[in-house]
Amino acid sequence: MPIAVSIPNRSTKTPASNLSSRKLLAIAVAEPRLKSEIDVQSAIVELQTRQHYLKELEAQGLLNER
Predict the structure, then answer these.
(1) I need a surface site. Which of 8, 35, 39, 44 has the fewest CB within 10 A?
(2) Residue 20 — left, alpha, or beta (φ > 0 → left; ψ -120 to 50 → alpha)?
(3) Is the pTM of this model over 0.85?
(4) Considering the domain boundaries, does residue 65 fall inside one?
(5) Helix or strand holding residue 6 (H, E)
(6) Does 6 map to a domain?
(7) What number of other Cβ atoms are within 10 A of residue 13's Cβ?
(8) Which residues have a Cβ under 8 Å from the Cβ of 21 and sit 6 or more positions away?
(9) What is the count of structural domains for the chain?
(10) Alpha-carbon distance 32 to 39, whole Å?
(11) Is the residue at 22 inside a domain?
(12) Local confidence band at 4 (pLDDT 50, 70, 90 cut-offs)
């Protein structure tokens, strides 16, 4: 699912799979009012798929029980 990436003077949608895991984690743990819920969920799903930063997501309470 595409995520909005802020670039000065432009706004683009980039598929979550094209972003680095570090950027996805930053999106997932950002203040909720700074990112849309869809962007946050897309970042979390992509990190779960990659199995990256799972401990950090769990510490933030962002992982759903499986």
Answers:
(1) 8
(2) beta
(3) no
(4) no
(5) strand 2-7
(6) yes
(7) 10
(8) 47, 50, 52, 53
(9) 1
(10) 10
(11) yes
(12) low
CB of 60 within 8 A of CB of 28? yes
24-45 as b/e: b if 16+ CB within 10 A: bbebbbeeeeebeeebbbbbbe
First to last CA, the chain: 21
Span 36-58, pLDDT tens digits: 788 888 889 999 999 999 999 99
Please state, in angstroms and rounded to a whole number, the distance separating the CA atoms of residues 9 and 48.
32
Q: Decide if 64 is inside a domain.
A: no
Judge whether 54 and 47 are in contact, CB under 8 Å: yes
Q: Pick 34 or 30 by higher pLDDT.
A: 30
Dig out the tokens for 49 from the structure.
């798929």
Instruction: Look up the domain containing 49 and give its range.
Output: 2-59
